[in-house]
Structures are given as structure tokens and as C-alpha cells.
Amino acid sequence: MTKAEIVAKVAQEIKISKKAAGKALALVTDSIAQSIRKGQKVTLVGFGTFSVIQRKARKGRNPRTGTELRIAAKKVPKFTAGAALKAAAEGKAPAKKPRAKKAPSKKAKKK
Question: Does CATH number 4.10.520.10 belong to domain 41-92?
């Protein structure tokens, strides 16, 4: 699915213009990029987590000449899929977590 297809689907689903849907998508992606630039994690529950990892410097080889070269250390973006996204990729319904039981209220009526 392309960005244009996502914009069209959002515009159709919530009945707004494609221009407004495009601005909303741009705002979301820009916000994620700004947070990643600052080294922060961005978590969308059920979808996944965007973060930054530090890659170590390493040795590589030029495939054409075979000479060894040094690949510098750098920061790269990372995405970890959430449970619902993993389930969707497998064609399964997302697993539902059991709800916690409510504790009895402190103001229980005495007879």
C-alpha cells in the first residue's frame, strides 16, 4: 500500500478531503521522525514501537575488488511490531488479554 492509497482510504473512512488526510498523515510521520531524531521511542499500542539503535563500527569488503574497508558506527531507526500487527501478518485475530478483576470497593455496604 502506498502513501497515496493510505491517504485515500483515511479520507474515505472518516469522510474528509484527501488534502486534510494527507496533512494528518504528514503530521503523524513528521512527529515520529522528530521523536526518533531526539532519540526517543514512539509506541503505538497494538501496532508497534519505533526506536533508534546504535550500530557498532565494523569491517566490510568491497565486493568488486575484495579490499577490506571500515564501516563507521551509526545510529539507525528500528521498528518492532506489536502483538496485533504480528497477528494480522499471520492472518489471525489479535489475542485478547484477560481483563483484571475489579477489587471490591472500600465503601462496601454492611448489613
Answer: yes
Q: pLDDT per residue over 6-46, tens digit each?
A: 999 999 999 999 999 999 999 999 999 999 999 999 999 98
Sheet with 42-44: strands ordered across: 42-44, 48-55, 74-81
Q: What is the pTM of this model?
A: 0.70
Q: Tell me, what amino acid is at 108?
A: A
Domain ranges of the chain: 1-38, 41-92
Burial code (b: 16+ CB inside 10 Å, e: under 16) for 50-80 equals: bbeeeeeeeeeeeeeeeeeeeeeeeeeeeee
